[in-house]
């Protein structure tokens, strides 16, 4: 029997991931969600010995609430009772809203949440010396669990709304890319952040304990250390957040109910998705198309996955040989920023024969260079902001994080500017559109290899003044050097970016024949 069942099961799993399977998208979302959940669990495990009494349950509550919202948004099509479906059964707006919400407590996810909440209350209650702590624990768990359930329902409605938008898949990919790039610095810095007395830095603990999603879970700790008033205020913050979420859900669910019954839910006559978000200029069209490449082309997706993983590969050996954790904590953000912008150094080759559209349309070289650099600048800016905030929070050194942001800005601007020149000057062959992203054409790189290497070295030279200011700031314990490093990084990055775009545009215009000849041989 097993000999027949196992091959059938294997064939079913293979068919579920086939390109023609209607379940393929759902399976892929499940695998991505599982990977992100494993990443978050790893981060919590790495931070467990650093969390204080208030920060540990607050962090778990924040992650549970945000995770429920993301899960509801991603798997909303599995919900059997959304308000829009109940509207078709003749239920009124109010009743469909109540039935849809009450259905959330009739499944395995809510049972797991309930068990986790009970374990939290019992564990913390047995460790508490005051019997009144049980009341604060129970109140915080009830409010926190309510926020988790409401977040899942709000996520489901948001996911339904996104699916009805033209180009919704592109926005899902944007969210996945930003989430992956945002979690990467957090994970690396959580692993390598220097130990501090009392666990996690006090500022991070305070932010988590007073955050809207974490406050109710930290009410019992506030009662133990500060008395009744801090605990009551944190419960009040959680209760107010829950009320706001419930009101928002009720309004949105009624709106969805109305759209399901009337003709107000009409798509616009012409929607271009990502292209609607950019100006109708040559540079805007190239930027929108490049961003679509980043989200849809498997070759770019492989590059982005490598960029996310590479800092960990660099940091682990350095950590094992005993490099100071404070030094290691400054590495991920500049490395991620540089790699994101350095992707442009051969961006022209990924177009294949489509580059003839740029040449035959008479597009200016500056528009082509600026459009191609836009996605890297947008995503790189996000990485700099998110990574710098995480660096400052985990290392408790805002001045050092500021100079680190200057180094990253110099690398992003320098790499984007120099890549705009090298991609037009010396492109090299890559996998053709539709081929495996892991394949590489058997062709000589010619002068492209030394030119690309020289460009990377030049990027590091551009960031050297900011790096020197950061080192001087650490050695002298002076915030002046850190501020100077930040300013110098911004100025150098912006200058090299502007010059590189203009020079790269001129190179592109002068080498159109060579570029077309190169594209025809791919």
From TrEMBL:
Transmembrane segments: 28-47, 54-75, 101-122, 134-159, 171-191, 203-225, 231-252, 302-321, 327-344, 373-395, 407-430, 451-473, 479-501
Keyword Oxidoreductase recorded: no
UniProt keyword terms in alphabetical order: Membrane, Transmembrane, Transmembrane helix
UniProt key word Zinc: no
Protein name (database record): ABC transporter permease
Annotated organism of origin: Pseudoclavibacter albus
């Amino acid at each position: 029997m097993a000999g027949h069942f196992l091959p059938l099961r294997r064939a079913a799993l293979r068919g579920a991931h086939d390109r023609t399977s209607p379940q393929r998208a759902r399976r892929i979302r499940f695998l991505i969600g599982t990977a992100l959940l494993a990443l978050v669990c790893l981060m919590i495990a790495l931070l467990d010995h650093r969390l204080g009494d208030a920060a540990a349950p607050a962090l778990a509550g924040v992650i549970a609430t945000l995770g429920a919202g993301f899960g509801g948004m991603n798997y909303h099509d599995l919900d059997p009772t959304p308000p829009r479906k109940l509207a078709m059964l003749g239920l009124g707006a109010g009743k469909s809203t109540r039935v849809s919400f009450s259905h959330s407590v009739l499944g395995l996810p809510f049972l797991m949440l309930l068990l986790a909440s009970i374990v939290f209350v019992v564990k913390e209650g047995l460790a508490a010396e005051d019997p009144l702590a049980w009341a604060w624990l129970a109140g915080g768990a009830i409010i926190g669990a309510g926020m988790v359930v409401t977040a899942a329902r709000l996520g489901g409605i948001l996911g339904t709304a996104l699916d009805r938008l033209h180009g919704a898949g592109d926005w899902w990919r944007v969210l996945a890319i930003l989430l992956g790039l945002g979690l990467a610095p957090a994970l690396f810095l959580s692993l390598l952040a220097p130990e501090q007395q009392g666990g996690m830095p006090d500022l991070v603990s305070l932010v988590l304990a007073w955050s809207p999603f974490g406050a109710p879970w930290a009410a019992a700790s506030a009662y133990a250390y500060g008395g009744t008033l801090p605990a009551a205020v944190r419960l009040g913050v959680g209760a107010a957040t829950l009320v706001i979420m419930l009101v928002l859900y009720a309004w949105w669910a009624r709106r969805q109910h109305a759209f399901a019954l009337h003709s107000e839910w009409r798509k616009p006559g012409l929607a271009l998705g990502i292209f609607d978000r950019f100006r109708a200029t040559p540079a805007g069209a190239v930027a929108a198309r490049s961003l679509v490449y980043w989200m849809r082309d498997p070759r770019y997706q492989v590059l982005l996955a490598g960029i996310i993983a590479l800092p960990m590969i660099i940091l682990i050996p350095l950590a094992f040989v005993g490099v100071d954790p404070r030094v290691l904590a400054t590495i991920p953000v500049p490395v991620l920023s540089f790699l994101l912008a350095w992707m442009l150094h051969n961006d022209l080759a990924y177009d294949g024969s489509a580059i003839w559209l740029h040449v035959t349309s008479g597009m200016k070289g500056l528009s082509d260079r600026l459009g191609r650099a836009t996605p890297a600048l947008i995503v790189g800016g996000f990485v700099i902001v998110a990574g710098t905030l995480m660096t400052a929070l985990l290392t408790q050194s805002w001045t050092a994080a500021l100079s680190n942001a200057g180094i990253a800005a110099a690398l992003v601007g320098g790499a984007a500017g120099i890549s705009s020149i090298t991609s037009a000057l010396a492109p090299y062959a890559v996998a053709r559109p539709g081929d495996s992203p892991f394949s590489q054409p058997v062709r000589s790189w010619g002068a492209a290899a030394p030119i690309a290497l020289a460009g990377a070295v030049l990027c590091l030279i551009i960031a050297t003044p900011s790096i020197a200011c950061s080192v001087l700031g650490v050695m002298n314990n002076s915030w002046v050097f850190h501020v100077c490093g930040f300013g110098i990084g911004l100025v150098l990055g912006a200058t090299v970016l502007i010059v590189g775009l203009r020079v790269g545009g001129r190179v592109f215009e002068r080498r159109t024949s060579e570029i077309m000849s190169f594209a025809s041989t791919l």
